[in-house]
Known about the structure:
By secondary structure, the chain is of the alpha/beta class. Helix content is about 20%, strand content about 30%. It has a single domain (about 1-274), classed as Carbon-nitrogen hydrolase (Nitrilase/N-carbamoyl-D-aminoacid amidohydrolase), CATH 3.60.110.
Amino acid sequence: MEVQVAVAQxxxxxxxxxxLAAITxxxxxxxxxxxVVLPEACVSGYDDNLSRLxxxxxxxxxxxxDRLAEVAASKCIHLFCGSLLFDHDAWWNAAIYLSxxxxxxxxxxxxxxxxxxxxxxxxxxxxxxxLDLDGGFLTVGVQLCRExxxxxxxxxxxxxxxxxxxxxxHAANPDVPAGVWRSHLISHAAANQRFVVAANVVDxxxxxxxxxxxxxxxxxxxxxxxxxRVLRTVIDTAEVASWxxxxxxxxxxxxxxxxxxxxxxxxxxxxxxx
Length: 274
């Protein structure tokens, strides 16, 4: 099945109305049935010390999400956007899916950044999401920012049926060596034989690209850092495979989730008799 995807690289600030204006500008050209991916926390705002979290208005965030839900429905698009969300008396770093028919789905970041710990709550699930597209169904898995550093989470999503990894990030740290996170994205795509659709914030200091990567690890398109741009391409889910995942030595090591925590199972008789 061929699927139209769009990666929107937009600026993000703590001014929610300014964020909404930037997002609606890029959505003006969105095409019916398209999957549109926006950066982490593009609705609420974000920075590397959560400097405005205490002044963030939960009702204002909810209002912008309601507005974007209306746009997704009117444009008939599948929209993924990031936001800090207040729920159950706590703030969460979340990716929100807004469907053409008004449905919503939320992924809550399970592996929080150092500056998020103690201020945000961590999710405890790695769910997949099935999209009802014009050409059929597509299963996706979502990851946020530093979760690029934990390959077992991506593998778990692939095992659960994800054909495409949707990745939202706010990666603009000049201390991270250039190219490292880009290499992680390529590796996750190639090792799991899945597409990666990644959106980063507009910032000249980007250390992770906004890009679309094929199951072979080919970069199908990539946006330049520091520019408000939209990358559009068509992906073909026929390229998705489980050739490598099917060759894993599960007799030696098997990763699985139990009670929300990742655990490693060892074989009954380890090599070497240890």
